[in-house]
Amino acid sequence: MNPDARLRRALVPVDPPDGFAQRVRARIAEDSRAATAVPQRPLARWMAIAATVLAVLVGPFAYREYETRREAIAARAQVVLALQIVSRELNSAHRKVVRPVETTLAPAGAGVSGKEGRP
Predict the structure, then answer these.
(1) Residue 91, domain member (yes or no)
(2) I need a labelling partner for 19 at 20 to 30 A (CA). Which of 37, 43, 51, 101 fits?
C-alpha cells in the first residue's frame, strides 16, 4: 500500500461524540472558577518581594567581593610563579659561583699542625 493512501485513510475526518462540546465548555467553566478561587497569601507575596529587593541590593556587593577574591587568587598565582623563577635562577647562579668542595686526601702527618687545613 502506498504512503498517500495510508495517509488519506489515517486522516479521514471523524465526528466527535455527542455532548463533546458541552463537556468541553463545562470543563472550561470549572477551570476558570477554580483559577479565580485561589486564596490570596499576602505573607508569601511580601516574602517574595523582600527576597527580590534583597537580591537587587546585595547582588552588586557580592559580585564585587567575588571579583576581588578572583583577582587576589590570580595575583597569588603570579607571585608564586615569580618566586619559582627567581629560586631557579638563584640556584643556577649559586651553582656557577660556588663550586663543590673538592676533597683531596693528604698523606697522614704531612704538615698538619693540629688545626684542620692549616700547615
Answers:
(1) yes
(2) 37
CA 1 to chain centre: 57
The Cα–Cα gap between 6 and 4 comes to: 5
Which residue do the cell numbers 505573607 mark? Answer: 43
> What's the rounded Cα separation, in Å, for the pair 116 and 105?
12
At 72-96, the pLDDT tens digits run: 999 999 999 999 999 999 999 888 8
Q: What is the pLDDT of residues 106-117, one digit of tens each?
A: 555 555 555 555
Say if pTM beats, i.e. exceeds, 0.70: no
In a domain, 28, yes or no: no
Q: How many domains does the chain have?
A: 1
